[in-house]
Amino acid sequence: MENEKEQAIRSLFEVVSSIERKWANEWNNQNALGFSKSHILILDFLSQEGPKRPSAIADRLKVTTGGVTVLTSKLINGGFIEKTQHATDKRASQLIITEEGERALKQSHQQVNDIINTLFGMLSAEEVQMLRDIFAKCLLDPNQT
After folding, report:
1. To 5 degrees, how large is the angle CA 21–CA 39–CA 31?
2. Which positions fall inside the HTH marR-type domain (predicted)?
3. Is 33-144 assigned to CATH 3.40.50.620?
């Protein structure tokens, strides 16, 4: 029985890898703005929570502040976010989303929805929830289950 489970897991790994590649290909085909997932996460974070310091963005994305600098420079240069002085600490900067950034975020959300429909539209709501629950379970620490 363990051998069957092991073979099924190997097969699952191949399927998940194929879905990941298909998702990346769909994203690249539809991604007119040239944003990565991290760019969208930054825009989404700023849209939902307002102005943030680069360190808060780094904490949210689990990257270094240097990584945030690299990611945000593209967004700043494109006019999607602006760097301003922090309201209470004049020595610190903060980042805010612009109207252009809000429009780009809306466009990116539509692209994500289109990809999700392409990849998972044939599944029922129950199947999607089951798939989500299974993958979430796989992310748990095995020592805590």
Report:
1. 50
2. 5-140
3. no
In tens, the pLDDT along 49-67 reads 999 999 999 999 999 989 9
Residue 123 to residues 91, 110, 126, 129, Cα–Cα distance (Å)? 51, 19, 8, 10
- pTM of the full predicted structure? 0.75
Helix 37-49, helix 54-61: angle, nearest 10: 120
Alpha-carbon torsion angle 118, 122, 126, 127, nearest 10: -80
Contact, 86 vs 92, CB < 8 A? yes
3-state secondary structure string, 17-78?
A: HHHHHHHHHHHHHHCCCCCCHHHHHHHHHHHHHCCECHHHHHHHHCCCHHHHHHHHHHHHHC
Question: Phi/psi zone of residue 81: left (φ > 0), alpha (ψ -120 to 50 degrees), beta?
Answer: beta
Give CA–CA dist 17/39, Å, rounded.
23
Please give the DSSP secondary-structure letter assigned to residue 131.
Answer: H
